[in-house]
Write a structure and sequence with these properties.
Helix content: 25-40%
Radius of gyration: 33 Å
Strand order of the largest sheet: 1-2-3-4
Distance between the termini: 122 Å
Number of helices: 1
Strand content: 25-35%
Structural class: alpha+beta
Number of domains: 1
Number of strands: 4
Oligomer: single chain
Order of helices and strands: HEEEE
């Protein structure tokens, strides 16, 4: 009587689940990296928007100072900021003034004449259409009434 031959072990059977596991883990790693990059870009753009608003507010303050301390001259201009976190921002400031006379009504200022100023500032950084482009607009209305 002859002995039956021992069955041959199945070679290469474990490679299929191992490859599947590698593909799934690679896909999960890729998704995690893309989510992390997206969150980082969102935080960066939020910070740049806050800096743009600060630059626009600096333009408003510059325009207000020039209007109120410049003998009533309402000056428009462009500021190129170079200091600290606002480095690289360009601010376009526009100013318009109007004269109003207090003659009666509810606002009493001795019947004098005052100027009202409307100041608008647009802060930009980067190139339009590119990922790092930010723009903020701020405006303010003030008067030289005492």
């Amino acid at each position: 009587m002859t002995r039956p031959a021992a069955p041959q072990p199945l070679l290469g059977f474990a490679i299929v689940p191992a490859l599947f596991l590698l593909v799934v883990l690679g896909a999960l790693a890729l998704v995690g990296i893309r989510i992390g990059i997206g969150q980082q870009q969102a935080v960066t753009m939020g910070l740049m928007q806050a800096r743009a608003l600060a630059a626009a507010n600096a333009g408003i303050e510059w325009g207000a100072y020039r209007a109120l301390n410049g003998g009533g001259a309402c000056v428009s201009g462009t500021l190129t900021l170079t200091e600290a976190a606002l480095n690289g921002f360009s601010v376009v400031v526009s100013c318009s003034s109007s004269v109003f006379v207090n003659s009666g009504g509810t606002f009493v200022n001795g019947g004098g004449t005052n100027d009202a100023y409307t100041i608008s500032a647009t802060a930009t950084s980067g190139v339009y259409g590119q990922p790092g482009y930010v723009r903020r607009v701020a405006s303010a209305t003030l008067t030289d009434a005492k």
